[in-house]
TrEMBL record, chain A:
Organism, as annotated: Iocasia fonsfrigidae
Primary localisation category: membrane
Keyword Transmembrane helix: yes
InterPro entries xrefs: Spore_GerAB
Subcellular location: Membrane
Keywords assigned by UniProt, alphabetized: Germination, Membrane, Transmembrane, Transmembrane helix, Transport
Record protein name field: Endospore germination permease
Membrane-related topology note: Multi-pass membrane protein
NCBIfam families associated with the record: 2A0309
Organism ancestry: Bacteria, Bacillati, Bacillota, Clostridia, Halanaerobiales
Automatic annotation (TrEMBL), chain B:
Segments traversing the membrane: 28-44
Record-given protein name: Uncharacterized protein
The keyword Transmembrane helix is annotated on this UniProt entry: yes
Superkingdom, natural source: Bacteria
Keyword line: Membrane, Transmembrane, Transmembrane helix
């Protein structure tokens, strides 16, 4: 019994993966704590992220047409597999909660200060829930529409900021100590190039042979945009970029051409609205789908609204300081789900010679 | 409180009739349990129960054990 009847093409998969990787990344840029070396950190993190991507892709190639929940059940047996799937669902739920709070924080801090926090959460969850109820095809088409806009407007702001650009801001290169740099690289790889979600999406692509190429292409494209954003922010803001909560926003604020072409920071807000919504909708979709598969339901639609209700119930950070502190704690939790369990699954699957030629 | 009850009743009315008509009993049970959990949580918060933040707990568990070169 197929829960999801939709099929997505390889190009739509590229857009979905980009949406997943960008998400919050170009508003809260990864690696801002190493000041002027953030762009180097992202370049290294790209290669670290590719390793993670390859682990997931080899799992997907070994079990074609199976989602994460089914793979766990196959490899670990019935009881333990269900337990691991439940942990994964809780982790997806956790990420989705963090996303919706990040999203609401941005608009609540910068634009609508007097509006109650929960209004943003309810509105974005309603829109995301409607997208999730319509299935993966609709989310993929949203991504096809939104991601090019994000790319074009980011590059336009970069060009407009060229006159404020100062190359001296990049000196001294590699100032950060080696362990700290390594930590930031790892954090960025886990935070921005985390490919866990694809195991829930890849089964719905129509050309299974092109999956590997699409995902790796998408990783490079999203990394290039993140590097572009990091270089723009460092060149314009310099060392001050690391003290702002939203450096991109502050950088774009400086655009001023004769009092006419100014206040372009609304572009950043619009981009964030688009990409944050995509990332949130995708994670929300994956949570409900995995939940429905775990419980062996015939349709995932009834789970959408209850999970949405639980997502709007703010159980995660209550202020922006906690958000910043949590960035150094999240990798420890994410490592379990992104690195340890997938690698273990691969090893056990190869030892047990799974899958054994069943349909 | 009336608002909370109204919203949850609306969600239930939106989802349940179709499920019951198609005799999807397992889906009905899963939906009801999750919705009831949400209802209980919102009601408790309405009556002034303070929930600890999950991220706060995780930070307090892990943060003190981090080495010094990881920035605060």
């Amino acid at each position: 019994m197929a829960l999801e009847k939709g099929k997505i093409s390889s190009s739509q998969l590229i857009f979905l993966v980009i949406a997943e990787m960008l998400g919050v990344g170009f508003v809260i840029p990864p690696g801002a704590t190493v000041n002027q070396d953030a762009w180097i950190a992202i370049i290294f993190a790209l290669f670290g992220g590719l390793l993670l991507v390859l682990v997931q892709l080899s799992l997907a190639a070994r079990f074609p047409g199976k989602t994460l929940v089914r793979i766990s059940e196959l490899v670990y047996g019935n009881f333990l597999g269900k337990l691991i799937s439940l942990l994964y669902i809780l982790f997806f739920f956790h990420i989705a909660s963090l996303m919706v709070i990040d999203f609401s924080n941005f608009f609540n801090i910068l634009f609508m200060i007097s509006t109650p926090f929960i209004v943003f959460m309810i509105l974005i969850t309603l829109v995301a829930a409607s997208a999730v109820r319509n299935g993966i095809e609709v989310i993929a088409r949203c991504a096809q529409f939104i991601i090019p806009i994000v790319f074009i407007s980011t590059i336009i702001t970069g060009i407009l900021l060229a006159k404020d650009f100062n190359l001296e801001n990049f000196q001294p290169v590699l100032e950060a100590s080696a362990p700290k740099m390594a930590w930031i690289v790892y954090r960025t790889a886990i935070f921005s190039f985390s490919p866990l979600h694809f195991l829930m999406i890849i089964p719905f692509t129509n050309k299974q042979g092109e999956v590997k190429k699409s995902v790796i292409k998408a990783t490079f494209i999203s990394a290039s945009l993140l590097i572009f954003v990091a270089v723009r922010n460092i060149g314009v803001l310099g060392i001050t970029g690391s003290i702002y909560t939203y450096p991109s926003f502050q950088a774009v604020r400086l655009i001023n051409y004769g009092e006419i072409l100014t206040r372009l920071e609304i572009l950043i807000a619009l981009n964030f609205m688009g990409s944050g919504f995509l990332q949130y909708a995708l994670t929300f979709y994956i949570t409900t789908l995995a939940g429905a598969q775990l419980l062996n339901l015939r349709t995932y639609l009834p789970l959408v609204l209850p999970i949405g209700v639980l997502l709007t119930f703010q159980l995660h950070y209550y202020n922006i300081v906690e958000t910043m502190e949590y960035q150094d704690v999240y990798p420890f939790i994410a490592t379990v789900f992104h690195v340890i369990i997938p690698v273990m699954t691969l090893i056990i699957a190869s030892i047990r010679k799974l899958p054994r030629g069943e349909s | 409180m009336l608002g909370i009850i109204a919203v949850f009743t609306m969600i239930a009315f939106f989802e349940l009739p179709g499920l019951i008509r198609r005799k999807y009993w397992r889906e009905v049970i899963a939906f009801s349990l999750l919705l009831f959990l949400g209802f209980v949580l919102y009601t408790l918060r309405h009556f002034g129960v303070k929930f600890p933040s999950i991220t706060r707990i995780l930070i307090d568990l892990i943060q003190p054990n981090l080495p010094g070169w990881i920035s605060k």
